[in-house]
Amino acid sequence: MPYTVSADEQTLIHFWDKTFSSSVKDQSSMDPKEPDSYRSLAPSDQLFQAAASLGLRKKVLDYGCGSAWAALIAAKSGCMDVTAVDPAGGAVDAARSVIALYGVKQQVNAFQISPDWLYTVPDCTYDGFICSNVLDVIPPESAQEIITQAARIVTDDADVFIGLNYCMSPEAAAAKGMPLSEGNRLYLDGVLRLVSRTDDEWASLFAPWFSVKTLEHFAWPGEKEARRRLFHLRKKQPA
C-alpha cells in the first residue's frame, strides 16, 4: 500500500526544516579541537551512553537524525558505517556540517529521505538503530509504521534505542493552558509537538516486535524531574 504523507507530517517537515536551518550558524561555537567536545552535543548522559555503545556495532542507523549528534557519537566511538537520515532538509544540512566539523565524513553518510524511505531498506540491514525524540512528535500512525519497519530492517541481535519526551496528562496540559487534542496530542501554533503516552503504552506498542531490555528515565540539563524516557529494545525472535 502506498505511503500517504499526512498534513501533520508535511507541517512537521516544514517546521523542522526551518528550525534546523536556523541552527546551522550556531555551530560556529563548536570547537572540534577540544578533546571529547562532541560529548556535549548529546542532550543527556544517558543518550550519550546509548549512542556511544553503538560504536561497537558494524552498521548503524540514526533515524530522524536532526543535527546527527547520535551518528557523530557512534562514529567517534568506533562504528565505521553510520547512516544518518531525516526528512527535513535543514536537519540534514546541520548534520552534514557537524559531521564535517568533527572529521567523520568517511564514517557517516547523512542524507534527506522521503517519509516512505524505510520501506526501501532491505531486511536485517542494521545491527544498531537509534531514534531519539521522533516517535512521540509525529502522528501515531507514522510512529507505528516506523516501529514496524525498524523491526524488519534490524538484525536479530541489534541494539535498538528509542528516546522519548515526557508523558503529559490531559489535566497537566490543561493546567498549563495547552489542552490536548484527541486525548493525547499537543499542538503549538498548529504544529504537532507531542503525542503523550505512558511508559506502559509505549511498551505495548513495541511488544509485537521488540522486548524491553531496559528503560531509563532522565532529565535534560535544567530540568528538575527525570521524566524523559530511553528504551533499549531487542528484536523478538519467531516462536
Structural overview:
It is a single chain. The protein contains 7 helices and 9 strands. With 239 residues, it is an alpha/beta fold. Helices cover 31% and strands 24% of the residues. The protein has one domain: 3-Layer(aba) Sandwich (Rossmann fold), CATH 3.40.50.150. It starts with 6 loop residues before the first helix and ends with a strand. It has helices spanning 7-23, 45-53, 69-76, 89-101, 140-153, 170-175, 199-206, and strands at residues 60-63, 82-86, 108-112, 126-132, 154-164, 185-188, 191-195, 210-218, 228-235. It is globular. The strands form 2 sheets. It has a 7-stranded mixed β-sheet, with helices on both faces. It has a two-stranded antiparallel sheet with strand order 6-7.
Order of helices and strands: HHEHEHEEHEHEEHEE
Total tally of structural domains: 1
Give the full name of the CATH homologous superfamily: Vaccinia Virus protein VP39
- Mean pLDDT across all residues, rounded? 93
Computed structural class: alpha/beta
CATH topology: Rossmann fold
> What's the end-to-end separation, in Å?
27 Å
Strand content: 15-25%
CATH architecture label: 3-Layer(aba) Sandwich
Number of strands: 9
Low-confidence stretches: none
Q: Major sheet: order of its strands?
A: 3-2-1-4-5-9-8
Number of helices: 7
- Describe the sheet with the most strands: 7 strands, mixed
Topology summary:
Layout: H1 7-23, H2 45-53, E1 60-63, H3 69-76, E2 82-86, H4 89-101, E3 108-112, E4 126-132, H5 140-153, E5 154-164, H6 170-175, E6 185-188, E7 191-195, H7 199-206, E8 210-218, E9 228-235
Parallel strand pairs: 1-2, 1-4, 2-3, 4-5
Antiparallel strand pairs: 5-9, 6-7, 8-9
